[in-house]
Amino acid sequence: MKGVPLTVDLYKYIIDTFINEDDILKQVVKDTAEMKLPLIQVSPETGKLLGLFIKMINAKNVLEIGTLTGYSSIWMARALPDNGKITTLEFSEAHAKEALKNFEKAGLKNKINLILGKAMDTLDKLSEKDFDLVFIDADKENCVNYFNKVIPMVRKGGLIITDNTLRRGEVIAPNPGPGTQGIISYNKFVSTDCRVESILIPIDDGITLSFIK
Predict the structure, then answer these.
(1) In angstroms, rounded to a whole number, what is the distance separating the alpha carbons of residues 176 and 185?
(2) Which DSSP state fits 106?
(3) 66 part of a folded domain
(4) Which among 114, 117, 138, 146 is least buried, having the fewest CB atoms inside 10 angstroms?
């Protein structure tokens, strides 16, 4: 097998060396747990990587599908220039309410526009907008649908990044559930779509990176 297996000690080495998860980000995770909301936010290393991608392509306009309580939004907003903006879509009112509090605590309200509602419907309303980067982290059954909705909105040289694309290893398991089936379909779809060049990066639960040609 190529590569080095990621042990607990090696993971700790990566986090200790490269990741600065400050008190605000730690508090977001703690508060989310205390509210008994699902702890399905991105990992710290994925959050930092998202921020680096934003800087690499000089992104100013970012679209996020799936806010949860705003952990990934904060990582990305901090990476944006002063005139940058994130539009983040969230279906759950409870998640959105908590996210808005977290954006205010982080001093990022001016950089983040949260839209409450069903993402597929909201994307239709945003169809005339232009984005540099899209991060998809919502219901996995709809990943291909989300991709097809957003790709006309992303500039050439922009990125579409989708989370949980290893799905805890279930992408190669027998009899996968609906969410995993959605991810399998998504990975197959973007790997052959001539509009993009894609790769699955095995960080945390996997992210699939698609470069718009």
Answers:
(1) 12
(2) T
(3) yes
(4) 117
